[in-house]
Amino acid sequence: MKETKVGNYRWVICSLVFFATTVNYLDRAVISLLKSDLSREFKWDDGDYANIEIAFKIAYSFGLLAAGSFIDKVGTKLGYFLSTLFWSIAAVCHAFVGSTFGFGVVRSALGISEAGNFPAAIKTVAEWFPKKERAFATGIFNSGTNVGAIVAPLTVPFIAVTWGWRWAFIITGSIGFIWLVLWYIFYETPSKHKHVTQAELDYINSDENTVSKDEPADEGKKISWGKLLSFKQTWAFVIGKFLTDPIWWFYLFWLPDFLESQYHLKGTEIAIPVALVYTMSTVGSIGGGWIPMNLIKNNWPVFKARKTSMFIYALCVIPIVFAQVLGGINMWLAVIVIGIAASAHQAWSANIFTTVSDMFPKRSIGSVTGIGGMFGSVGGVLLSLVVQKNLFVHFRAIGQIETAYYIMFVVCGTAYIIAWLIMHMLIPKMKPVDL
User: Fold this and answer.
1) For residue 107, what pLDDT is reported?
2) By CB neighbour count within 10 A (0-12 exposed, 13-18 middle, 19+ buried), where does 327 fall?
3) Nearest 10 degrees: CA dihedral of 59, 225, 220, 8?
4) What is the pLDDT of residue 389?
5) pLDDT tens string 232-287
6) Helix (H, G, I), strand (E, B), or coil: what is residue 103?
7) Cα–Cα distance, 104 to 97 (Å, whole number)
8) Which residue, 100, 412, 61, is CA-closest to 248?
9) Which site from 140, 340, 358, 398 is most exposed, i.e. has the minimal number of CB atoms within 10 Å?
């Protein structure tokens, strides 16, 4: 009842961010579903595919640093618009590539431009939601990563079979242009938006020490990375992302290959199990934000609600260690265990992103999110270089690819609890930063 009187336009904005995140992940997931087609056409082995994946991640890493600072400077409306415009163009350009080197170039362009999504999304949530709702709002928009990953296997293989792999890139890449129109029409900061009532604006700015009117005095003031990296709070977020982001990259780029290598699924046969994993992840993303929101409403301190929830999610990933064993009994058991782990990751992700707005002023959120995202992407590059590229090539060559996947599932199962312990040691109370 109370919520209706306050107003709900902030959820319209959340839906726009959800849409953008869906498109973001749809565009990056396409290549994993076309791996077999592209490998045949361009004579790729696992090392070539890993190199293209690494090119994307390196570009994404540098893009995150630039994007976070840029979005803090120009604001969410323009920053989000430009990022989506350029990544949509890059996604479509995949269709016109004729060489392995060309794929490396367009994947790099996609990585640089897609990097703007999460700094812009987290900053948007901080502008539009009070702290008690931010994890829930983040969980909702972050579920777009799952929806994008669900839509991809349900559409891309069928487009490729019907019209060829080039059209798969053109059709999926073009969806971003629809979002650009909607964003331009419907988005503005809360204090300037004609559809936001004074009651809703007051609710958005209801946190203690929150500066009203979207902190206009601070907007655009640059804060150096050196200053931000001097805080333990930044390093807690950075290390948490560094250790856990690579696991999601692993699911995204290698799950179709796992199903093909272990269970000999081909083309459209992969669609249902991949879609199931990401459908389960959607539940984790939204539920992961709902749990701390309700704990806070029941008078738990924000830091305690956040860290307790993250500890539970870290424990829920551990069963993936047994994915290979269970998969030997039945493929669907492996798929379900991977789905639970992916769901727990998304719940974790909704909360680790929200720790930034819990601890930092709005004007620095894009920059801190970009720094943490950059380190998360660097972790993904290192995982690809040190583990996947050498490990997968070696064990596939000797006919024991299942061993490589077993090792990777052990890494997946232990990463989150290690990250949680380090974060807890660095920030036992999640003290807000005073810039």
Assistant:
1) 93
2) buried
3) 70
4) 65
5) 889 999 999 999 999 988 887 778 878 888 887 776 777 788 888 888 988 888 88
6) helix
7) 10
8) 412
9) 398
* 85 to 2, 89, 91, 93: CA distances (angstroms): 38, 6, 10, 13
Dihedral sign from CA coordinates of 298, 300, 302, 308: negative
| Cα 183 from Cα 186, distance rounded (Å) | 5
Within 13 Å of residue 37, how many CA atoms lie on the same side as its CB? 19
| Cα gap 382→242, rounded to integer Å | 10
Q: Which amino acid is at 185?
A: I
- With residue 277 as reference, give the H or E element that holds it: helix 271-297
pLDDT attached to residue 222: 64
Paired tokens of 381: 């590059």
Sorted by where each starts, the structural domains of the chain and their CATH numbers stand as 2-204+225-426 (1.20.1250.20)
- Which of 172, 150, 176 lies closest to 87, judged by CA? 176
pLDDT of amino acid 312: 94
CB within 8 A of 188, min separation 6: which ones? Answer: 77, 194
Element (H, E) at 302: helix 302-317
Alpha-carbon distance of 48 to 56, in angstroms, equals 13
10 exposed, middle or buried (CB, 10 Å; 0-12, 13-18, 19+)?
buried
Q: Is the pTM value of this prediction over 0.70?
A: yes
* End-to-end Cα distance, the chain: 38
Which run of H or E residues covers position 62?
A: helix 46-74
Contact 136, 290 (CB under 8 A): yes
Q: Which residues of the chain have pLDDT under 50?
A: 1-4, 209-220
DSSP string, 145-210: HHHHHHHHHHHHHHHHHHH-HHHHHHHHHHHHHHHHHHHHHH---GGG-TT--HHHHHHHT-STT-
* Calpha distance 279→354 (Å, rounded): 22
Token pair 């209706």 is at which residue? 4
- Residue 15, C-beta contacts closer than 8 angstroms, at least 6 positions apart: none
Give the pLDDT score at 154.
83
